[in-house]
Amino acid sequence: MTTTAQTHSPDFLAGDEYSIATYAVLSQDGTLYDGAEGPALERDQALRIYRAMLATRVLDERMLAAQRQGRLSFYMQCTGEEAAVIGSAAALDDADMIMAQYREQGALMYRGFSFDEFMNQLFGNELDYGKGRQMPIHYGSRKLHYMTISSPLATQIPQATGFAYGQKLAGDGLCTIVYFGEGAASEGDFHAALNMAAVHEAPVIFFCRNNGYAISTPSVEQFAADGVAPRALGYRMHVIRVDGNDVLAVYRATELARKIAVEDNKPVLIEAMTYRLAAHSSSDDPSGYRSRKEEDAWRAKDPIRRMQLWLEAQGWWDEEQEKALQDELRREVLDTMKRAEKRPPPPIDSMVTDVYADVTPALQRQLDELKRHVRRYPDAYPRGARSLDPALGQDDDSQGGD
Question: What is the domain range of residue 383?
Fold first, then answer.
C-alpha cells in the first residue's frame, strides 16, 4: 500500500504550474550553447550518424518522387526528424531492440540496412523479407534487431514493455527503445505500457517524437498538459525533454537513458521536440492545416544542416565532401530502385509456405484455387501468370520454399 504524508488543508495541485525544460546542446549555427557540453562522439561515429541522416533524406526525396510518378503505391518521410531518430539509435547498443512506429527508417539506415533492402521492401519483390505481404515502409530486420512495423497505431508500445521485460529476465544487458508520435501517446496502449514498465521495472526507453501534428491535428488540440513528458511523473518514471533537432542533445539524452534502463532496470521516457517538415504521408496535403510560414520557420532549424555545420567546425567535413556524398547517395538510390523494380514478385506459393510448419490441406486447396483463377484470367494478373508459366522456366513445383 502506498503511504503518504498527511495534510489538514484542502490544497489542490495545479497542473498548469508545472513545465519541463528542453535539453539542448547544439545551436543552429553549429556551435555549442554557453555552458553546454556535447557527448564524447568520435569522428568515425559522428560521420556514420551524419551519413545515415543524409542518406535517409535522399531516400525520402527520391521515393516520394517515385510515388508521385506512380512507381510506388505509398511512402512516408522522416524529413525534419532525422536527428531525433538517428541520434537516439546511435546511442544504443546495436543489439538493443528497436520497435518503430512508421517514420524511423533512419534507425535502420544507421544500423546498416542497405538501399537494396529498402527498395526490395518498398516494391514487395521476391527479395523482400516480408515476401510482399506488407504495405510499403513496413520494414523489419531480424539481423539488425528491428521489429517489423505494423500499421495499427501504438500497438508497439506495450509490446516493447513486454520484450524489455524478457530482456531483463534474460540478463543480457540489453534494452528496447520504442518510437511513437505524440498522437500515439493519446492511445490507451501508451498508458498501459508505461504503467506496466514502471511496475515491473522493464529496461525500455519510450521515445516520443513530438512533431507537432497527429496527421492534421495540432498538439494543442490533443492535450492540455505541457506536452507528453509530464505524464511519466504519474508513473514514477525517469523523464527528459530534448530538442529533437539537436543530434548531440538527442544522442546524450538517449545514452544516459540507456544507462538507467540497463543498469537500474528502470524505464525512461524521452520527449523529442521536433517538426515533421514533410506531409504525414504521400496521401496527405499539409497545406490544408498548417501555413507555409510555419514550415519555413522550422525549415530554418533543419537538423541535417545543424550537424553539418558542427562537423565542419570540428574540421571533419567540408563542402566538397558534402557534394560528393550527396551525388553518391543519389546515384545509389536511383540504381537500386531500378534494380528493385525489375525483380519479380515473390512466388505465389510463398503466401502459405511459412504459415505453419507444413502447409495444411485447407491452405493448399486455397492456393490451388488461386492458381486456377490466375491461369483463367492471365490478363488481370500478368506478373502472377508469368510466374506460373512452365515455358518461362517456372512451374507449380518450383514455387515452394522461402
Answer: 348-399
User: Tell me, what's the pLDDT at 213?
Assistant: 96
pLDDT digits (tens, 9 = 90+) for 304-355: 999 999 999 999 999 999 999 999 999 999 999 999 999 999 988 888 988 8
pLDDT tops 50 at residue 396: no
How far is the C-alpha of 18 from the C-alpha of 172, rounded, in Å? 38
> Is residue 151 located within the same domain as residue 165?
yes
Domain boundary among 309, 342, 375: 342
Residue with cell 574540421: 315
- Confidence tier at 394 by pLDDT (50, 70, 90): very low
Same domain, 126 and 29: yes
The answer on 377 and 231 residing in a single domain is no
The letter for the amino acid at 185 is A
Global pTM value = 0.93
DSSP class per residue in 133-188: -S-TT---BTTTTEEPP-SSTTTHHHHHHHHHHHHHHHT-S--EEEEEETTGGGSH
